[in-house]
Design goal:
InterPro entries: Beta_helix (IPR039448), PbH1 (IPR006626), Pectin_lyas_fold (IPR012334), Pectin_lyase_fold/virulence (IPR011050). This is Right handed beta helix domain-containing protein. Residues 5-132 form the Right handed beta helix domain. The protein has strands spanning 3-5, 11-14, 19-22, 25-27, 37-42, 46-49, 52-54, 58-63, 66-71, 74-76, 83-86, 89-94, 97-99, 112-117, 120-125, 128-130, 134-139, 143-145. The protein has one domain (3-145). With 146 residues, the protein is mostly beta strands. A 6-stranded parallel β-sheet has the order 1-4-7-10-13-16, with no helix packed on it. Strands 2-5-8-11-14-17 form a 6-stranded parallel β-sheet, with no helix packed on it. Helix content is 0%, strand content 54%. The chain is globular, with a radius of gyration of 13 Å.
């Protein structure tokens, strides 16, 4: 378990295999409209579960990914998007609390509960998504909402 306070990017994984991120508290980057992420995956795979991610630019950001599970996290009060998925496939987003994510006035950042672009086979189910500027923005080939 990791407790990170007042850091830039919380956990950053690049070109990693079978990463497991669970039972962590990541909070208070506290830079308005920042591009720092609570958890960032690029060209990696694994599981992100049972974490509390608060106060970053984006809560969870993944890109160029195959096979990632984002389950049972609390992702809240980030200045940008709660969960951002880009250029990825076979992604599961289940059982998360995604609340109060959104931009500060004048920001040009993307500010959604969940933002998906250029991705396929994304399963979004059984999440609580509340009080975000936009709930789900999707520009994908295949998405399944349950």
């Amino acid at each position: 378990m990791v407790n990170l306070n007042n850091s830039s990017t919380g956990l950053d994984y690049n070109n990693s295999k079978d990463a497991i991120i669970e039972n962590n508290t990541l909070k208070n980057n506290a830079i308005y409209s920042s591009h720092f992420n609570g958890v960032y995956f690029d060209n990696s795979n694994g599981n992100i579960s049972n974490n509390n991610i608060t106060g970053y630019g984006q809560g969870v950001s993944i890109s160029n990914i195959k096979n990632v599970n984002i389950n049972k996290n609390t992702i809240s009060e980030n200045t940008g998007t709660g969960v951002s998925i880009g250029n990825s496939s076979n992604i599961s987003v289940k059982g998360n609390n995604i609340n109060k994510n959104g931009c500060y006035p004048g920001s040009s950042a993307v500010c959604d509960g969940i933002h998906i672009s250029n991705s396929s086979n994304v399963d979004i189910s059984k999440n609580n998504i509340n009080n975000n500027l936009v709930y789900i923005l999707s520009m994908v080939v295949q998405i399944m909402l349950l």
